[in-house]
Protein 1
Amino acid sequence: MTATQADVPDVPYFDLADPSFDVTSELVHAARDESWYVHTPYGLAVLRYNEVGALLKDRRLRQGSAAWPAHNGIHSGLFTDWWNDVLMNLEGEDHHRIRRLLNPAFSPKVINAMVPQFQALAEELVDAFVDEGRCEFVSQFAEPYSARILCILLGLPESEWQQISTWAVDLGLSLGVTFAQDLDKIHAALEGLYGYCNELIADRRDNPRDDLTTRLVQASRDEDRLTETELAVSLVFLIFAGMDTTRNQLGLALQTFLRHPDQWAKLAERPDLGRAAVEEVMRVNPTITWITREALEPFTFQGLEIEQGQTIQLFSHSAGTDPSAMADTTFDIEGDRASHMGFGGGVHHCLGHFVARTDMSVALPLLARRLRDPRADGPGEWLPMSGNTGPVRFPITFTPGA
Amino acid sequence: MRVIVDRALCDDHGQCEIAAPNVFRIGVDGKLEYDERPDPSERDAIEEAADACPLQAILVQE
């Protein structure tokens, strides 16, 4: 029998369906001291570092998002067909086969070679507003940076970033609470992206180039290749998964550094700390605040009986700041901290993490050098501090730096 | 060829097992087990595993 609230009165209940619920709040920290898990309307939520780490990699659990369309009453159509086939929602050998074919295109060697292009892009974007001493960070930096990085990666003309970004934003509505109402818009975006990606695939087959799209078209392993459908599904998925996440994580990074101005000043002087800064930001302020898993079989974990089909939310910020797992939880880009859960983990560990790590580790020291003493210019506009979070608008002022 | 995994870095995600299942595997305890002296025919798969490791904890020596 699954534990319910009534069975275990000491285990707290979080109303995760309430958009004002803050997963980084004192309430969550206090509950973490009392119990490794809590109940929510979306299943169990796990709060502590060791338990989150173990369950993230536990093979008795599958990735939990496959059932998302069905939970929203959507059982067929273009979106469902795509969703069922994307890497994230495949399991077992079906997943491993696609992952093996996609992996080499994301190797550190390939991504590191793009660093000069990432630097030039970041400088160009900052040049456009730096003399004004103020900017709206999302629309003037985070969004064009993450969208144009994706264009660089896939080998698309950078001038097309706004169209790609618009489709990605519309497709991203599928993750929101208004999924069912937005279905027409989501399907239109998916059709647009499929059309675009199919043309791209056909072009790279005839005219191979030094880009990720070509590498995927040519990808092979043990005589196996991606089919035309798998290629299109994967490219659409990369655009979907790579854009919002980086944009949001850059905004959250800036939010964290605004609370720690000494660390921002240090990063300006020490660009070699860029990589550590990315890790530290993702430990305390990750854009993906819960990672969902679903039990494939019944099992007992830490004395708790988990039923088959049980949904489990793994809380990344709570785990990353758990005082029972690390001696010091304060934000310190020179600190020696346990690895974070911001890229998920186990067989579903984020495929694009080298891209995200590399482009953010280029951007953050560069921003620290050129945007000195940044301050919030009004409250901005923020997604709920739950689910996939980040700024919608984040106006700041700063002292221009060289 | 010798395979060395830095155990201090390894987080047991198991991406190496996906890339090179004949060399790396996650045991029932959730911990990585691997063949330190694998067959040379596994070379390409092992290099893909080293690249795919999120922690970059795999070293291949001649």
Protein 2
Amino acid sequence: MIRWILVAVLAIGITATGLWGYQEHQEKNAILVQAENTYQRSFHDLSYHMDLLHDKIGTTLAMNTKERLSPQLADIWRLTSEAHNDVGQLPLALLPFNKTEEFLSNIGDFSYKTAIRDLEKDPLSDKEVESLQSLYKTSGDIKNELRKVQHLVLENNLRWMDVQLALATEDNQADNTIIDGFKTVEKTVEGYTEGNLGPSMTGTSSEKHEFKFLTGKKLNENQAMERARQLFDLDEQTEITLAKSGDGAEVDMYSASYHKDGRNGYMDFSMKGGHPLSLIINREVKDASKSLNEGMEIAQDYLERLELSNMEPFQSSQYNNVGVINFLYTQDEIRMYPDSVQVKVALDNGDILGFTSRDYFLNHQEREIAEPKMTEEEAKKMVNGNIDIQEARLSVIENDTGEEVLTYEFLGLLENETYRIFINAMTGSEEKVEKLKGTEEKFEQAV
Amino acid sequence: MRLKKTVILLFFALIFAIGISATNDIQPTEAFSNQVIQQGAVGDDVIELQSRLQYLGFYNGKIDGVFGWGTYWALRNFQYEFGLEIDGLAGTETKQKLVKASEYDKNYVNQQIKKGNEFTHYGGTPKEQQVKQGQKKGQEGTKKQQQGQGEGGKNQQQTKDTPAEPKAVNVPGGFSQNDIRLMANAVHGEARGESYEGKVAVAAVILNRVESPTFPNTVSGVIFEPRAFTAVADGQIWLTPNDSAEEAVLDALNGWDPTGEAIYYFNPNTATSDWIWSRPQIKQIGKHIFCM
């Protein structure tokens, strides 16, 4: 009898310990994941901030007017402090990374000093511009190295917790990719000597307003079904699921979807007027047989069929076997950046795979455009003299405060980089300067 | 499995056979396909375009097979110098002029691209002087070359026949391939079982949060915000994403947003917080309800 009780007690004891142990293990894992996530976040933030920093220094070099320069420098200062902060959060204490940190604080000092200075009275000297150029180059190198490390980390699922361990136990240091990568970054900065020192989409702001320009009558469910069939270009047999949007939606809309022969379609269109806002068709896309240029023509025809006229293609990109083309509404040859539409075309057979026109229907109206007060030549003078201007035209953009303004748009080159510069056609102030990129080296081959 | 192996073997045998028959021909002279090449395009034609423009000294960037801004300006300058219409499009007339004026050593360019070498294609300079072996791949490259010669040039024939892959990709404004990959990881972890639009929707929510003043300003900041995404908290984010996740992220970055500007979403079956039910809802896609 006693023996049985003893066995039972022991059994309960062992099970309890086991359970407790398992629970502890689970908790430990949860905390490990959380710690890992914090490291990952700092690391990815760091690469992003370095990238942004590099671009900002680039745009600063392309700027001219003092009113825009000071906030830009202040922004650089903010970014350096963020990047510095990110470095501080990583478990790199045992790794020599001080040169990079020094570099960051050097940019910080430089941008702070110049940002608070009255640049109207005391503009950037040639020497300062020169040092800005070298900062631009070095930050570019650091950015590239960091992006490579980041690629390796993502590709191989590397863990920062392992770095911490590797750093703590000196002997494995040699073969840790992250540590190696950071050492390369550090080496890049060494080449930079101290003696040198002396997103949102184009043209739209993040300010939101209502859909106030939608025209047409409100559709009931039967009409909506008909409209969906027409927009999807489907016959009567295919079943379409229709749903109304809820209270949170900015504009009342119907969402329609279908599934047929390996194709999935999903579309939003406004209740008022039945305007298509967003369309996604998903299917497997085979090897491209059509060129991006043909894709663009198909997209243009499609817009005509949707009765969107005067749309001018302004940007196109091929991703694998699909082309994405960005269109802008033009009125009297003036580009309206707020009225943008994107179309996605499958380059295997030219099907339309997607369409999004939220921005267009949010902003589009026939505008009364006043005559510019400045001539193109006058506006050109407001652009930084180092920029080699290649193209010029008039366009309407939304500025930082969300107002639509008429501008001269210049495309120009500065040291092999392309910049888009908007000069207010009424006041001559520099509304926006953007560095244009759009391609990136593939990392597989670079590393 | 065995079938696959046989197919692969057959495939290689075929390539080998074609390789042998091709060696007898002199360097192919045909140039460009029929397409009009425009900015944003990728592929063989772009590699040829860049090489030819570089041969004439108009293009000084890397020959990477992606028609970016550098190529655009080079082409325009070419059109200007040769008295063509300056439109930045490589159409029939432009291509003809270009082919007449320049030479293109396709084998040389393709091989350099495949070996990952840094190289140029300027006219009037010996090819040997225009190649800089890639730093890390350099040794590997020479080794392969020696091997190739040792085996009677078998490898070289193979590389000649398959076209070279472009060395760069288009990325939507300001985002790196790494940002895309990180987002694809998050989307895959969060919406693996969802339809395609459900994935685009999750990616769009991440981007809407980046724009929103109440959330962090970077993609990584939003994704790794503590307790924001369950897939991040339980480590599912580190599963390898599939192509459809990546494609969905590209769509979202290019402006698609099937959620109608939502910044929250939840699964009504598993949601534990009452608060989330109080948010104004926009719509449901698959298992997720999207709200403001």
